[in-house]
């Protein structure tokens, strides 16, 4: 194992921490672009509280609303133009992963010379990463992506014939501060709470199953995240106002993708890459797409590495080998995982996402779109095992 770990984001966590937003932001700028989504934060009152905290601290506010789920590059560009015109000196992303991701790329686009599309990853091209960004402050309102404390962003390119969902990951996108107030998540509907739980688990299963061998501490971290979500996720789904459950799930979402669990594991994210194609083409919620793709991918990958999936079955679901070989145990564990997803209200079949009548052509096309974002020298999607076009379709 060999790695370097760096995460400079200050994390302010706990119920009521929104009150500190103004004081926090005033350390970085005087005029904030406050980026929000389709209006949930206005309905909940969080937006007004944020604005009042900012004004009290002497920070003036320029609002940019309307970031859509699976955020589009064209939206990012419009927001960056507004930030330039208004001479904003700090960007606040208040919302789910879509809003936070958009905010990061807005903050970089304001200072970027060239087309922001060139920042994004595409197979066969070296991205021209931004070297600067306005200071970014994140205020998550949904527990899922962990975007509040990482330097990644997922953006859909929408100026081409068919949309392409890709990503950027670079140090200047680390938020300066994440103000994480679990009270802001109590209005998240049951379905999105469940999709968030699936997203959190999938962030750590990617490393668990696709990472290098010999990472016992990272395995235990990942298992800790999964077991925490299995325990507290259903409580947050069944009673959205359970602030303790909301807080535990939100902390899990941060831990799952702030780099700590991933350190040294060196894993690609094949399940995410396949899902991103679905959410780009069909505009489905990311976590719901993962609930379909992840168990299906697991059943495929377990055949190549049954002992690893058997470990998952044993340590997460307490299953024992009793008369079963590793693959049998692995499949039982995957079945239990899928049952869990269903029990909290996640779809596990494409038809439940409204994607019916799937043909061979569609599957091949989705595979091609996925490989258009990322592939190795042999044209395969990185992972364990690396996936050819036919593998992805299967
Ligand atoms: O737009 P508004 O009105 O705010 O409504 C949103 C949206 O409709 C709603 N919502 C958010 N907070 C709420 C709320 N509704 C009521 N009360 C609240 N407190 O939830 C809906 C979904 O929001 P979205 O931001 O799209 O969800 P999520 O947080 O799951 O983010 C998904 C996006 O993040 C990307 C995904 O690909 C997708 O584009 N990801 C980003 C990652 C990262 N930066 O590290 C990693 C992830 O793997 C993921 O790929
Ligand atoms: Zn995810």
Task: Describe the structure concisely.
This protein is of the alpha/beta class and 394 residues long.
Q: Can you walk me through this structure?
A:
The structure is a single chain. By secondary structure, the chain is an alpha/beta fold. It has helices spanning 21-26, 40-44, 46-56, 73-85, 97-109, 190-210, 216-238, 243-256, 270-282, 286-302, 306-317, 326-343, 360-373, 389-393; strands at residues 10-13, 31-35, 60-64, 90-95, 136-140, 152-157, 164-169, 177-180. Strands 1-8-5-4-2-3 form a 6-stranded parallel sheet, sandwiched between helices. Helix 6 runs parallel beside helix 8 (243-256), helix 7 packs antiparallel against helix 8 and helix 11 crosses helix 12. The longest helix has 23 residues, at 216-238. It is globular, with a radius of gyration of 20 Å. 51% of the residues are buried. Zinc ion (ZN) is lined by residues 145, 199, 202-203, 272, 286. 5,6-dihydroxy-NADP is lined by residues 37-41, 44, 69-70, 95-99, 101, 141-142, 144-147, 150, 152-154, 184-185, 187-188, 192, 196, 199, 257, 272, 276, 286-287.
